[in-house]
Design a protein that fits this description.
By secondary structure, the protein is mostly helical. It is built from 34 helices and no strands. Among the domains are: 129-376, Alpha Horseshoe (Serine Threonine Protein Phosphatase 5, Tetratricopeptide repeat), CATH 1.25.40; 421-586, Serine Threonine Protein Phosphatase 5, Tetratricopeptide repeat. The model is unreliable at 1-17, 387-398, 651-712, 721-766 and 771-796 (pLDDT under 50).
């Protein structure tokens, strides 16, 4: 039986397109019962048509047919070209580059190597549009790069580089780059204004274009109520006015426009504009400046704006009162233009402005080469470059010396960096690292990787403290960072101690919130022993050595320490000998006034437990002061007594009337025993007849100075001398009790009222009155002050010797008084 396989013709092309069936087990040599037509031979060239995916079968068939027709046409074209013997043209780099640059989007992606090849091929013809387009792109990139890296330090070096570029052709690019860079970084506005002022002196059309575009941008932003663009634009215009690029009339017109219909945004912009340009207007237009401030005051009195903006106006008034000390006309280092070279543009706010937006776009220049040559001449005039070959070449030796000098100057510039650019960058890196950290461990780990030069470790500590102070409330995140750094290395430990001393000395410069955060930060470090308690030696807790800010700082810091450690632990820590030595300034004991102040201060901040020692000292202070004064007085009296004893010994040898002196002395001593003068309660009775004043009790008030005691001795001496001339009654018995009558003389006078007055003894036996110096020297010579055992022995000897003398004196006096009766 015949199979399908035997009926179909076999061909080598049918294999992949036809499906074969498995052969039957029958004999394959038998002829088939019926024959089919054989297939046509395959074509010599096959065109593979891709399959089209479509849901509709009719549409799919039509699309496949059209696709097959297009591919067949391409194949026919190739066959015809092969028959004719023509080859494909080679790759035209110039044409491809022209096609690439002519498209709006810049064309498709091109590999860099192929792009460079295309640019090299296109740059062979410098008059072509492709070359001009390449030079335009290079000019745009160069101007943008130079403008973006200008600052106060390198502006003198950047300006020559900027003049190397064709600023006349690229003035639109320069204006756009400067305005974009200034709006992105407002603190650098004075630098960009100085750069425009320098270029304006040589190329005034560039400065005029920048000013025109700024005024146009302000007008558009003011109409759109775009506060951000208005603020940046007015700031730039203010600094151009300060640099004399723009006339002050434009500043006054802007202020009038902003203050005409006051709103919160317009007043805020006007205040910021006035802070920048106010110093210039006060110096050059004082009347207009006064008018503007009168308008500000009127707006403030109207009260139609919010309290925040009213406060801004008040701050502006204070800035004016301080004479704009923080907003000078031209900052230091940016006064680079001489007054004779300044070119001022008088552009009005309401006039028609030619912004020339077409200068930002590339346009083909038919006279490109001529314009380039012309700018080279202008550049040579601006930069002072010589055109002759002699000036350019010079001798080889001189050129080598100049190169060496330039290298040495570059090295010196690299060593002496006074711009603090690197320091600012370091602080920025530290700040960003801290802000981007999730926890304190990550922050410490990242900060340790920051490359810090030797000697700049203190900057890291200060940046951590400054970041902590800027928070609204204290975060332990910063305290844990500082604690970890102090425990890692001794260098950070010393840096944080140094920072504590510096911040304590300048704490009065910080506002209350920042002060509180700094105090709690250092309180955390002290409570955790991250820094030593020896840092407290810089604190002197007296009324004169502290301010209100420092007292608040100490209070908040110790409250943080007490919360962490507990009051009992803090009191025990202050009893440690090492801590007590370091904290002597906090516990003053030299002056009772300072001690009392410290006690009151610690008690007011709930730290009275640490003032026990000072309270005990304050109780014993009077006794200690008395002892010190007594020691000083004894030292002074001993020195004076030694001098007086020498003078008394000399005078006693030359005295001829010693007997009369002794009798007079005996009368005085006897009268003193019989009629004692009233004594103070704190003075004990004298032990001998000597005129040494009795010792006072230690608990009593301090003894008066020596001169008062001498005066009292003189008064007593005079009273005894005059009383000795009267007739005294017979001596009383010692056994009779004494009355506490303070005036015995009055009692005697009353008893003798009715009797005739007794005659006083003759004045012949009494000696003439002595001078004060003799009485003082004699009274001191009788009893020298006690100094020790030796002086006591000498006193006892003198008393034993003087006893018989006193007895004889008493007998002679009694005979003289009562012998006549």
């Amino acid at each position: 039986m015949a199979t399908a396989e035997t009926m179909l013709p076999t061909s080598p092309t049918d294999g992949p397109s036809k499906r074969k069936r498995s052969p039957s087990p029958g004999d394959s040599e038998q002829p088939p019962l019926s024959r089919r037509r054989s297939l046509s031979p395959p074509p010599s060239r096959l065109v593979e048509v891709p399959k089209v995916v479509d849901v509709d079968p009719a549409r799919r068939a039509e699309r496949e047919r059209q696709l097959a027709a297009r591919m067949a046409e391409k194949e026919l074209e190739k066959l015809e070209k092969e028959k004719d013997g023509k080859k494909e043209p080679a790759f035209d780099a110039q044409a491809e580059f022209a096609k690439l640059t002519s498209t709006r989007s810049g064309g498709v992606y091109m590999p860099p190597a192929r792009l460079r090849a295309m640019q090299e091929a296109a740059s062979k013809d410098k008059a072509s549009a492709e070359y001009q387009r390449i030079s335009w792109d290079a000019l745009r990139k160069s101007i943008t790069g130079i403008v973006n890296r200008v600052n106060v330090a390198n502006i003198k070096h950047v300006v020559p580089e900027l003049f190397q570029e064709n600023l006349i052709r690229g003035r639109g690019l320069f204006a756009r780059s400067v305005m974009k860079a200034q709006s992105a970084s407002l603190p650098f506005t004075p630098v960009f204004a100085a750069l425009v002022a320098i270029i304006n002196t040589k190329l005034p059309q560039v400065g005029e274009l920048v000013l025109t575009r700024l005024i146009s941008q302000f007008r558009r932003a003011f109409k759109r109520n775009d506060k951000i663009i208005c603020h940046s634009t007015t700031t730039f215009i203010a600094h151009l006015v300060n640099q004399a690029v723009a006339h002050e009339i434009i500043a006054l017109q802007i202020l009038v426009l902003l203050l005409e219909r006051p709103t919160d945004d317009s007043i805020e912009i006007a205040v910021g504009f006035m802070r920048e340009v106010g110093a210039f207007l006060a110096e050059n237009s004082p009347k207009a400046n006064a008018t503007v401030y009168e308008r500000f005051r009127a707006v403030l009195n109207e009260g139609s704006i919010s309290h925040r903006v009213q406060y801004m106006i008040e701050v502006l008034m204070q800035v004016r009162k301080d004479k704009y000390k923080d907003n000078p006309i031209i900052p230091e280092g940016l006064d680079l233009v001489e007054e004779d070279e300044q070119i001022t543009h008088q552009i009005q706010l309401e006039e028609e402005l030619q912004v020339q937006e077409g200068l930002n776009i590339f346009k083909f220049d038919a006279t490109f080469l001529e314009n380039e040559e012309r700018y080279k001449q202008i550049k040579a005039e601006i930069l002072g470059e010589g055109s002759s070959d002699e000036d350019e070449s010079g001798s080889e030796e001189s050129s080598e010396e100049e190169e060496e000098d330039e290298e040495a100057a570059e090295e010196k510039q690299g060593i002496e960096d006074r711009t603090q650019t690197n320091l600012i960058n370091l602080r920025r890196i530290i700040y960003l690292t801290i802000m981007n950290a999730l926890n304190y461990e990550e922050a410490v780990h990242k900060l340790l990787k920051v490359q810090i030069k030797e000697g700049q470790e203190i900057e890291l500590c200060k940046m951590i403290i400054e970041c902590c102070s800027q928070e609204r409330s204290y975060s332990t995140f910063y305290g844990l960072i500082g604690e970890r750094f102090c425990r890692i290395n001794r260098i950070w430990f010393d840096c944080f101690e140094q920072a504590f001393r510096e911040y304590y000395e300048t704490i009065h410069r910080y506002e209350t919130n920042r002060l509180r955060n700094i105090a709690r930060f250092f309180g955390h470090l002290i409570a955790t022993d991250a820094v030593s308690w020896n840092v407290l030696d810089c604190i002197k807790l007296t009324e004169d050595d502290t301010t209100s800010s420092s007292r608040i700082f100490i209070k908040i810091m110790f409250n943080e320490v007490t919360e962490s450690m507990g009051l009992k632990t803090v009191a025990e820590r202050f009893k440690d000998p090492e801590v007590r030595m370091s904290c002597r300034g906090m516990f003053p004991m030299d002056n009772p006034k300072d001690t009392r102040f410290a006690i009151n201060y610690f008690t007011s901040i709930n730290l009275g437990a640490i003032t026990e020692e000072m309270r005990e000292h304050l109780k014993n202070a009077p006794r200690i002061i008395m002892e010190q004064r007594r020691a000083m007085l004894e030292a002074e009296s001993s020195s004076s007594d030694s001098d007086s004893s020498d003078s008394d010994s000399d005078s006693s040898d030359s005295d001829s009337s010693s007997a009369s002196d002794s009798s007079n002395d005996s009368r005085r001593s006897r009268h003193r025993r019989r009629s004692p003068s009233p004594r103070r309660k704190d003075i004990k009775p004298a032990r001998s007849d000597s005129r040494t004043p009795p010792r006072r009790d230690r608990r009593g008030s301090p003894s008066p100075p020596p001169r008062y005691r001498e005066k009292s001795r003189e008064r007593e001496h005079e009273r005894d001398r005059y009383a000795s001339r009267k007739d005294s009654p017979p001596p009383r018995r010692r056994d009779s009790p004494r009355r506490r009558d303070p005036s015995p003389d009055r009692r005697d006078r009353g008893s003798t009222k009715g009797r005739p007055r007794a005659r006083s003894p003759p004045l012949s036996p009494s000696p003439p009155p002595r001078s004060r110096l003799e009485r003082r020297s004699r009274s001191r010579s009788y009893s020298p002050p006690r100094r020790g055992k030796e002086t006591r022995r000498d006193d006892s000897r003198d008393r034993d010797i003087e006893k018989p003398r006193d007895d004889r004196r008493r007998r002679s006096v009694s005979r003289e008084r009562y012998g006549r009766r």
